[in-house]
Amino acid sequence: xxxxxxxxxxxxxxxxxxxxxxxxxxxxxxxxxxxxxxxxxxxxxxxxxxxxxxxxxxxxxxxxxxxxxxxxxxxxxxxxxxxxxxxxxxxxxxxxxxxxxxxxxxxxxxxxxxxxxxxxxxxxxxxxxxxxxxxxxxxxxxxxxxxxxxxxxxxxxxxxx
Amino acid sequence: xxxxxxxxxxxxxxxxxxxxxxxxxxxxxxxxxxxxxxxxxxxxxxxxxxxxxxxxxxxxxxxxxxxxxxxxxxxxxxxxxxxxxxxxxxxxxxxxxxxxxxxxxxxxxxxxxxxxxxxxxxxxxxxxxxxxxxxxxxxxxxxxxxxxxxxxxxxxxxxxx
DNA sequence: TTGATAATTGACGTTTGCGTTAGTGATAGC
DNA sequence: GCTATCACTAACGCAAACGTCAATTATCAA
Lengths: 161, 161
Description:
The structure is a homodimer. Residues about 1-5 of chain A have low confidence and may be disordered. The first copy, chain A, has a domain at about 1-70: Multidrug-efflux Transporter Regulator, Chain: A, Domain 2 (Orthogonal Bundle). With about 160 residues, chain A is an all-alpha fold. In chain A, helix 5 (about 75-90) crosses helix 6 (about 100-160). In chain A, strands 1-2 form a two-stranded antiparallel sheet. Chain A has helices spanning about 1-10, 15-25, 25-35, 55-70, 75-90, 100-160; strands at about 45, 50. The interface of A and B includes residues 68, 101, 108 and 111 of A. Chain A binds a DNA duplex (30 and 30 nucleotides) through helix 3.
């Protein structure tokens, strides 16, 4: 049953326009990502129209997060999403016993990639926390200056009467 | 005395090469930032060599932070550092009383810019925190899978004897 | 079946953020 | 005064990440 749900999620039924609308990127961008290997070549309708799945949508969103939040290049992002490919490959070709070593090394690879992402995020989070603190202090200072100036103005207005 | 220190910090005495070394950007980049209005045109030696101050170094570092952490474009960064200009202008032409309104509106401008930065940072921090949490869960999951596989392997090894 | 949309490939264009010469002048140590 | 750096301007170059036609074909609703 879990399998059925998985299949339902993977059922490609979205045209490129809808994916574009939902993810906020252009059709051009979707084709571009495909060309660069960031998205797997989607299945097609008889006429050749691309058909995307919900998984593909999730993937595009992930790419955008890696771009916007971490500032990674598409080349770097490609490396990371390739690890996702391996996951799906693992799930598809589920040959349980014999190749345990192979599966182990792939899980290991995924662990490494995930740890790298985590390191990047952690470093950025730290630096940004520092920056936010400084900004807060700055703001407080300006607010003070502003209050002073307001007082000055009202005083000089009072003395002018 | 505070004024003397400020002047000491502003004393331009660094050549472009040293600034490049200290900030980790190239000389080309420094000239480029100047061209784009991100750095004020520095003073020059008799022969025309640029002379930077410590304040300039700090500015370059700030630019780099805004680029790397927030992913802002140079155009956006320019807007922000222009507010810094106003600060220095305020400090230089310290005409206390008369133009209180003018000073108020400039402080107000700086407050707005700072708040914008703060908003960007806050949003990013939040999104990144979510991402970090997800990554943590992912990692935990993989570790589990890894442990399972290890167990499988040792078991099949045992049954093979 | 006939428009009105929506998608396809291919190719060239654009912006950002610098890199990279090239040719010339400035500074400093010996 | 020579020479080894260092810096100057000007101009062209370039990779990344798409944008923008153009010409053609699909899909779908009426």
